[in-house]
């Protein structure tokens, strides 16, 4: 009986392994040159960290982005004080992937999650006027999100 259970468990794990395995495109396309897939990897400051992409991105958006990349952050990155001399690196567009490549990578990325993140904190309810003001202050001043992400100002123009 015990050996029967062990065989069934082995078959299950062998069949489930490809779903959790990293797709070969990650290395072939040089994804690790810009992105981290684990918190233990050295921070690169070139592209966003992807070790929590299952918590960060919507699957459909990610699939579309990988097939037809667009510039998201209009910022430059500088690894030193060379930005004072105007020598900062310009952002490059992400490489475009085929539909199959994008599907395999997205299937892998959406499984990468932070175990400590509390799920269900975001609701569909609209924020009150006071809550919107607090979020705006956090976004623009306290957390500095505005340095990379675009937002609308009070008159509805992108800043």
UniProtKB/TrEMBL annotation:
Gene3D superfamilies reported in the protein's UniProt record: Cytochrome c-like domain
InterPro entries in the cross-refs: Cyt_c-like_dom_sf (IPR036909)
GO molecular function (one): heme binding
Protein name: Uncharacterized protein
Native source species: marine metagenome
Taxonomy of the source species: unclassified sequences, metagenomes, ecological metagenomes
């Amino acid at each position: 009986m015990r050996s029967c259970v062990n065989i069934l468990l082995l078959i299950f794990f062998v069949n489930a392994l490809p779903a959790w395995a990293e797709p070969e495109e990650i290395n072939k396309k040089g994804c690790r040159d810009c992105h981290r897939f684990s918190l233990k990897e050295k921070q690169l400051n070139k592209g966003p960290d992807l070790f929590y992409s299952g918590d960060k991105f919507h699957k459909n958006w990610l699939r579309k982005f990988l097939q037809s990349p667009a510039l998201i952050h209009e910022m430059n990155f500088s690894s030193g004080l060379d930005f004072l001399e105007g020598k900062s690196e310009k952002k490059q567009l992400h490489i475009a992937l085929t539909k199959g490549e994008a599907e395999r990578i997205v299937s892998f990325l959406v499984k990468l999650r932070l175990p400590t993140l509390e799920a269900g904190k975001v609701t569909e309810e609209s924020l009150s006027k006071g809550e919107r003001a607090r979020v705006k202050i956090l976004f623009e001043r306290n957390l500095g999100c505005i340095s990379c992400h675009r937002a609308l100002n009070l008159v509805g123009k992108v800043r």
